[in-house]
Amino acid sequence: MAKNAKREDVKKKLSESLNYCNSHHIPAQELFESIADRTINNETCHYDANERKREMKSLFPILLQAETSAMIPSIPMKPDILELDSKAFLELWLNKWISKFLSGWQSLPSDYVANPKKTVTDEALIHMVMDAKHAGSKERAYEWAAHHNLFMSAENIGGSLLEEYIYSKIKPYGWIWCRGKILTAIDFCNDECTAMFQVKNKTNTENSSGKGFRESCGAKAWNRMKAERRNGKIETYWPKLIEIVREGSTVDKPVPNDLVTEADYLDFVSNTVRNNPYLISEREGDL
Description:
- This protein is α+β, with helices and mostly antiparallel strands.
- The chain has helices at 7-24, 28-39, 49-58, 86-104, 123-129, 138-170, 208-216, 238-248, 262-275; strands at 175-177, 188-190, 196-202, 220-225.
- It folds into 2 domains: 7-106, no CATH class; 110-279, no CATH class.
- The protein contains 9 helices and 4 strands.
- Strand 3, helix 7 (208-216) and strand 4 (220-225) form a beta-alpha-beta unit.
């Protein structure tokens, strides 16, 4: 099986194709919008296709601005694809970019159905925990293991639920949820492509390379909560998110100070699980 072309070679071909089409052929943005009109519809997108189409079209300037070029996602291409003429290559790349967005919008995190855990619980761990000073019995140790699985399942979907909650609140202020990893290390971008940010649940979930990349692009990061307790209490940062939303808003209406809160988010999570009890699972495979 042929290897994919190097990422830098694909991006170079993309840049050359954008420049060529803008100067010799159909303007790249016109080509992009025609592809979006053709591919984003009620059959390919079940969540407000017209709005998704508008959002996707709004992100096109990312491809042309030097300061946002690093955010362009890596889209795998075989080496022979780089031999296509500029228009053919650009059309293929743009189709794949839009497909990533559509794939991300196939379902909402709140509609997710959890799969059983693939790996089994280690019997040695059960024997350690069933000691009289801990679980007290093998049966109870297995119950605790199931509870652990449930928390792990909740943690796996938690980040996506957080993004869904945020989007439901900031969408009216001109913000786009960049689903499908259509931008590198960016979760939200305003519809003028002038402000972007990434969401992290805790302050200890971003490595130094990720932080350096994001800062080099001028994008911000927002953490919902501090990883450690402060004076025995959990500290959250919702007011900082409101500042980011306010600074990047593209509509002429004020962003309220209580747009997003911890209490409201917890209500959202509780209601989501109540409406979809299959969102998380304590089960293991083959049980």
